[in-house]
Amino acid sequence: MSEVPLEEAEPARKAYGDLTEGEREVVREALTVIARDPAVGREIPGWRPPSVEYTYTTPLARDSAEAITVVYTHTPGLGVTVVYYFRDPQVIDP
User: Fold this and answer.
1) Distance between CA atoms of 45 and 66, rounded to whole angstroms?
2) C-alpha angle 61-69-2 in degrees, rounded to nearest 5
3) Distance CA 16, CA 7 (A)
4) CA distance 8 to 10
5) pLDDT tens digits, residue range 33-71?
6) Is 70 helix (H, G, I), strand (E, B) or coil?
7) Would you say 17 and 54 are in contact if contact means Cβ atoms under 8 Å apart?
8) pLDDT at position 93, please?
9) Which of 19, 20, 54, 56 fits a 20 to 30 Å CA distance from 64?
């Protein structure tokens, strides 16, 4: 399976700059997963087709309740736009 083109919106670039190096590593791993399959995230209802907005949350460490959430949109044929990254203190997708 080929990777989907991925770009960052300005708010995401600014938020990335505020993350620690460990958090950035988690983000890079999450973006690799998202680029392989944009539907891996949790869909946010209410978007008009063809674009879909998702959140993807991944733990900072295997045994951590802290996580990083990536908010992004996917438009088939055009790719993924990362909207924002944020630290999520206790919510982890299964």
Assistant:
1) 25
2) 95
3) 13
4) 6
5) 999 999 999 999 887 888 999 999 998 887 778 899 999
6) strand
7) no
8) 52
9) 54
SS (H, E, C) 8-58: ECHHHHHHHHCCCHHHHHHHHHHHHHHHHCHHHCEEECCCCCCCEEEEEEE
How much of the chain exceeds pLDDT 70, in percent? 94
> Using CA atoms, how far apart are residues 89 and 49, in angstroms rounded to an integer?
31
The dihedrals phi and psi of 12, each to the nearest 5 degrees, come to -70, -40
> What does residue 57 show for φ and ψ, rounded to 5 degrees?
-115, 130
Q: How far is CA 57 from each of CA 2, 47, 48, 49, rounded to the nearest angstrom? A: 22, 20, 23, 23
Whether the Cβ atoms of residue 85 and residue 27 lie closer than 8 Å to each other: yes
